Amino acid sequence: MLKIPLATWIANAAACLNGSYGQVTQQASLADCSRQTVYDHAGKVRAAVEAQHQGSPNRAEVVERDEHLRRENAQLWDWLAQTIEFPKAKQEQFAITAAAMGLSLNQVLVLLALLLGQQASPGRSTVHRRIKAAGLAAGRVLKSLDARCRALVLVGCLDEIFFHGRPVLVGVEPASMAWFLGQRASDRTGATWAKALLDWTTLEFVAADAGTGLQAGIAAVQRGRREQGQTPLENGLDVFHTTQEARRVLRQSWHHVERCWEQAEAATRRVEQVRRQGQDSRGVAGAARWAWAKAEAAFGQYERSEAGWKIAHAALAVFRPDGRLNDGAWARERIALALAVLSGREWSKVRGLLQAEETLTFLDRLHRQLREAVPGDQLREELVRLWWLRRRRPRAHTTGRGSAAGEVAHLVQQAVCQKEDANWRESYGAVSRVLRRTVRASSAVECMNSVLRMHQSRHRTVSQGLLDLKRLYWNCREFREGKRRRHSPYELLGLRLPSYRFWDLLGMPTPSAETT
């Protein structure tokens, strides 16, 4: 606040700058201030006038600029509250994890540009180098982890998938969904498959399709183990592909029925048209009868083929339709009945698959494991019956007389098991584990192939490093739903690790990394 009026400031400046001798003293006396104050006022007034006329901002401009800076500062604080910390290390983790999840390099770059802005986001070559280096690190980590997994992988589902004509050999442990084999190969011959399976010496059973190279590789491994006296490898032919082929034949047969039926209906319409025109209809009527006979024969053939396949399909199940446990003798008898019906060239592949010895390997293995789990025949049979009844119970929303009987059937069976053995629950647990882990089809590896197909559509090519990166990420990620919920494949496999997080494992020390 000013103690001396502005007019006095100006008068003091005038006396100092333009007054005669002695006028400064006179003005100081009039203003009731010291001579030094007069000189100070003169300097400040002169500086203010010079500043006003030399292009410097005036007071209004300074006030406006100050207000603008205040608003800008407030806006920056608001933005800061909405931002995330995203240093270079975090950017690298984001890019590598996104690539492991299946995003292409272009998609990763787009997301980084959205987060950081186009100017601040790393370049394409930088991100590519980071992902490539992570793939090499994943390969080293997997080499160490695979060595520890070999004793845990006893059952495997095998198949191959192609990336632009280049095969990738895939192996999955079905109970844990652990992806234990993901090898990019130059071909899919028996020698290539045998080499890929050579290190997995504890494998006891594999399920695979009837591919020539894959079956030749499995046969080579079996021969090698027999010669070296190692654990034998059982080979089960995949039921999934047999069923898929049968459905394909039935679908084609039904399409043939539909075409014959449409032709017969068209022939009938021609007969009616000729009769309306008053013309001789004997020729077209004969053609119509022949068309309907052909359609009925096609429909009859389809019904016989469908019935025959139902007989064969029941032979490939774990349980018979009556709830009893399936066995090799009954299954072979049903297959023999089905083969008599499934005639024709179109069923030749299905007949070959049904007659293959490996098709029923899972039944022989199942009965052997059940005998090892529960030696007593009667108790084992009752426990298997209980397991089946518990899974046949009606849902909670089901009502009716039949559902009431289903609710108590397993309770009655429990009493039967209690009568056979007071400690039946422990034996039931062993039977349940065997039945739950029975593998008839390579569905697990087909699930993995469906995941890889998403990557297949996004990547022009897949290197071994990128494949290793994806495999490590898959084995570390937790399932979100289902019976494996909140557990990763490595956990379910029984592999003990200090951490199951993908990023932690990717940075874990390995022997090859330590030597370098």
Could you provide a short overview of the structure?
The chain has 516 residues and is α/β, with parallel strands linked by helices.
List the quaternary state of the chains: single chain
Query: How much helix is in the residues?
Result: 55-70%
Number of H/I helices:
22
- Spatial strand arrangement across the major sheet: 3-2-1-4-5
For the largest beta-sheet, the strand count, sense and barrel status come to: 5 strands, mixed
What shape does the CA trace take? Answer: elongated
Poorly predicted runs are: 512-516
Helix-strand topology string? HHHHHHHEEEHEHEHHHHHHHHHHHHH
Overview of this structure, please?
With 516 residues, this protein is an alpha/beta fold. It is built from 22 helices and five strands. It has a five-stranded mixed sheet, sandwiched between helices. A hairpin with a 2-residue loop joins strand 1 and strand 2. It is elongated and about 140 Å long. The chain starts with 5 loop residues before the first helix and ends with a helix.
Give the topology.
Elements: H1 6-18, H2 23-31, H3 35-53, H4 59-82, H5 88-101, H6 105-116, H7 124-149, E1 155-163, E2 166-173, E3 178-184, H8 190-197, E4 205-208, H9 212-228, E5 234-237, H10 239-276, H11 282-315, H12 328-341, H13 348-355, H14 361-373, H15 377-391, H16 401-420, H17 424-436, H18 443-458, H19 464-476, H20 489-493, H21 502-506, H22 511-515
Parallel strand pairs: 1-4, 4-5
Antiparallel strand pairs: 1-2, 2-3
Helix pairs in contact: 1-2, 1-3, 2-3, 5-6, 5-7, 5-19, 7-19, 8-9, 10-11, 10-13, 11-12, 14-17, 15-16, 15-17
